[in-house]
Design brief:
By secondary structure, the chain is α+β, with helices and mostly antiparallel strands. The protein has a single domain (34-210), classed as Glutaredoxin. Helices cover 48% and strands 11% of the residues. Helix 3 (94-105) packs across helix 6 (144-151) and helix 3 (94-105) crosses helix 7 (154-169).
Length: 212
């Protein structure tokens, strides 16, 4: 299992749309605001710049980060591919990796991803057992039995291994963390706040495009 260290998530309000132009002139430095990844990690499509969010449903910082991330995603260029990568720092959170990948497999991320965060962090549901998750699915208009069956499938198990390998390759120590193009990693602790890490990602996307 990957060891977790706590990432800072200061409650500093940042409106990306209002500040993006001003921040564009800011100089972000490797070793300070982001780290180089060595060896370079594989990406799904070499024709696109890839951005990864390493997250965990149990992580309160990931939950708080969601609104800023969703706003940023609405403005993502077509030549940038975004993917979420679920990580588990403890064995009892592997079930949440299974849950996300099952949602992805069933095409339910848009419908239920935010609701999982809400259930865990606002409603204080642990979603720690297959029964919990089946009930959660049924309450939210999906086949809970099918959801759990998908979680326990061979294909989901294979994708969990891939996610864990990728998190290890990026040397993920906390969530949320953002990987860019297999080359760089940033986070709230490096950037200053989690929302500000998205500005660092914008900078790294530009670097990746220049390198092509």
């Amino acid at each position: 299992m990957i060891k977790r260290r706590t990432f800072c998530s200061f409650a500093v309000p940042i409106t990306l749309s209002a500040h993006t132009a001003a921040r564009a002139q800011e100089q972000f430095a490797e070793g300070k605001h982001y780290l180089g990844v060595s060896p370079r990690q594989p990406t799904k499509d070499p024709k696109q710049v890839e951005v990864l969010e390493f997250f965990a449903y149990s992580c309160s910082h990931c939950n708080s980060f969601e609104p800023a991330l969703e706003a940023w995603l609405k403005k993502l260029p077509r030549d940038v591919q975004f993917r979420r990568v679920p990580v588990a720092f403890r064995e009892d959170f592997v079930i949440h990796q299974q849950l996300y990948i099952a949602l992805e497999t069933l095409g339910l991320v848009e419908k239920l991803h935010g609701k999982v965060f809400h259930a865990i962090h606002a409603e204080k549901q642990r979603l720690a057992t297959p029964g919990d998750i089946a009930d959660f699915g049924s309450k939210n208009g999906v086949d809970g039995k099918r959801l759990v069956e998908t979680m326990n499938s061979f294909s989901v198990a294979g994708k969990i291994k891939q996610a864990t390998t990728l998190a290890g390759g990026y040397k993920i120590e906390g969530t949320p963390s953002l990987g860019v193009d297999g080359r760089w990693l940033t986070s709230g602790s490096l950037a200053g706040t989690n929302p500000r890490s998205l500005l660092v990602v914008d900078h790294l996307i530009a670097l990746a495009k220049k390198a092509r």
